[in-house]
Amino acid sequence: MNIPNFGDEVFGHWIKGAMYYFKVAVALAVAAIPEGLPAVITTCLALGTRRMAKKRAIIRKLPSVETLGCTTIICSDKTGTLTTNEMSVEYFFVIGDKSGNVLTPFNVTGRSYNPEGTIENFEAFNENKIAKNIKAFATSMVLNNESKLIFEKRVIRSGLPTEAALKVLAEKIGKYDPEFKDKYVSYDKGVVEQYGAFISSNLQKRATLEFTRDRKSMSVLALDKSTNKNVLFIKGAPDYLLKASSKVLNKDGEVIDFTPSSKTAFENKIKEYAKKGLRTLAICVKYDTGVLANYVDANSKENEILQDAANYAKLESDPILIGVVAVRDPPREQVKHSIEMCRQAGISVIMITGDIKETAESIATEIGIIEKGDEDTRSMTGFTFEHLSE
Hints:
Calcium-transporting ATPase, cytoplasmic domain N
């Protein structure tokens, strides 16, 4: 374009004119490379970081702001993230007769770790004496438990919230036990786990079979000093333990067959609780501990069996089902609004949880991840997901 201008008299010679326009061409080429872009990007990211800090989110690395801006999917855990992780038992049920065909549910009041609250219709069920299956139910919850209830101006927990909720329920049950009433003192004296200590005084923990994902349960082996025999206390996911059980404990503490009709009643009640957004746990016991019958401590020859978690399912096989608890873990107040903001920003939120399908669907509907009626197309179990085609 500028070749005709090479001979302009202002340059004095056409060679100098050519050199001048060559320099212009080079300058334009250099200008096309945005060396200022890194500085502009860094400034933008720094401003983003400052905005995040005002929202109480500290960003350690500037590129993280860019990553957040590119996010289209958030996969979130449920318990403790979308929910408060402050558990309380809202319902539980046990066998209510000798035959094993009648389930008796109970409604529990009180929504904190303070063991204050009532159990509706409990006195009528126990008839001035704690039913033997209720006693075993409370004992299993207390023994198979690593949490602690601590009094510091108010009752707080140490350990897993689900386990703490079970201990709180045991303390509430204790207030209805005539044998314990004379020993009870006010919790504000600083002693919280009173009934737990009372019903476990005759038992000595010997081993713990830790929770594993494949069997969805946890067990504790304890010595019953009254019989000098080991007992296995088990708690875990109802779907796993109901399949594994062939016996139940009736109201009189007798071990009876777990009939198909009784199993169906259990399953229906568990689904009913799950649809209310409650997390359910089955409580079991096993009096015939098999190879662990003579286990004493880590020096016992049977200890080698406990070193491999793959053996736990076999050790827990055919437990005696006592009852089921339904635990409430309410969603965090701000979660529903946050999910709506994500949706407006074009971000999909997926909830991943170890709870059963019905519980997950109830919570997901409550916080706006799915809408009522979408469960069939937008909710699936791990088993279903693993068997999807590519």
